[in-house]
Amino acid sequence: MTKSFTQSDLIKYIYQEMTEEENETLMQALQEDQLLMQEYLDLLSTVEKLDQLLLEPSDSIVCAIKKRARSRGLERV
């Protein structure tokens, strides 16, 4: 019986959250199904782009947090 894989399965594979048996089954499916392989490559590319993002709070948010900390008598931030 052939198992169909979802995007969720592919994401679990990318983040190494599958069992060894699931990994083997998915790797075999990737070799046999070009559409699944393309979807995997697209997701992998997206994950790599997300990993490269550097997110930082805006200056106004940092100032608001510092102001709130000072008003509460918290340690200097």
Detailed description of the structure:
By secondary structure, the chain is an all-alpha fold. It has one domain (7-71). It is 69% helix and 0% strand. The chain has four helices and no strands. It has helices at residues 7-14, 20-32, 34-52, 59-71. Helix 1 crosses helix 3 (34-52) and helix 2 packs across helix 3. It starts with 6 loop residues before the first helix and ends in a 6-residue tail after the last helix.
Structural class: mainly alpha
So what's the overall shape? elongated
Q: Tell me the radius of gyration.
A: 22 Å
H/I helix tally: 4
Strand composition percent: under 5%
Mean pLDDT: 91
The percent range for helix content is: 55-70%
Unreliable runs? none
- H/E element string? HHHH
- Sheet having the most strands: none
Number of domains: 1
How many individual β-strands? Answer: 0
- The protein's oligomeric status is single chain
Amino- and carboxy-terminal Cα gap: 59 Å
